[in-house]
Amino acid sequence: MAEEETSTRPEFPLGRVKKIMKLDKEINKINSEALHVITYSTELFLHFLAEKSAIVTAEKKRKTVNLDHLRTAVKRHQPTSDFLLDSLPLPAQPVKHTKSVSDKKAPPPPIGTRRIDDFFSKGKEKTDDSA
C-alpha cells in the first residue's frame, strides 16, 4: 500500500505570503517552517470567516455573501471581533432620494483641485467676452 503524504501543502502561494510578511519592518528573515505555519493559519482563518459569513447569509435568506454578512459574522465571534472589526469598511448608508438630482448641490471639490465642469465653463466665458 502506498503511504499518504502527511505534510499538507498550503493553497496560498508561499512567495506572496512571504512578501506580505516582509512588509513589516521588524521582520528580517522568515524561517520556512514559520512561513508554512502562517500560510496554513491564514487559510484556516479565512475558511472560518467564510463559513460563518455563509451561515449569516443563509439566515438572511440570501445567496450572495456581502460586507454586512461578514461584519455580522465577525461581531458574533468575540476574539475575531476584537482585532478585525475596526479594519472592516463600514457598510454603505442607504441613500434617500427625496430631492431630484438637479435640486441637489454638488459637494465642493477637495482643496487644491477643480471640478472639470468649471474648466469647461471658464472656456465658454472667455469666448463670450471676446465676441
> CATH-wise, what's the superfamily of the domain at 10-91?
Histone, subunit A
Helix/strand structural class:
mainly alpha
CATH-derived topology of the domain at 10-91? Histone, subunit A
Multimerization status: single chain
How many E strands? 0
Mean pLDDT: 78
General shape: flat
- In terms of per-residue confidence, which ranges show pLDDT below 50 for 5 or more consecutive residues? none
| Main CATH class of the domain at 10-91 | Mainly Alpha
Strand content: under 5%
H-E string: HHHHH
Q: Alpha-carbon distance between the termini? A: 95 Å
CATH architecture descriptor of the domain at 10-91? Orthogonal Bundle
Region (Disordered): 83-131
Keywords: Nucleus
Main location: nucleus
Protein name: Transcription factor CBF/NF-Y/archaeal histone domain-containing protein
Description:
The protein has helices at residues 14-21, 32-59, 67-76, 78-84, 116-130. It is mostly helical. The protein has a domain at 10-91: Orthogonal Bundle (Histone, subunit A), CATH 1.10.20. Helix 2 crosses helix 3 (67-76). It is found in: Nucleus. Its main location: nucleus. It comes from Arabidopsis lyrata subsp. lyrata (Lyre-leaved rock-cress). Residues 83-131 are annotated as: Disordered.
Pick out its properties:
131 residues; mainly alpha; Histone, subunit A; 5 helices; nucleus; Histone-fold; Transcr_DNA_Rep_Reg; protein heterodimerization activity; Transcription factor CBF/NF-Y/archaeal histone domain-containing protein
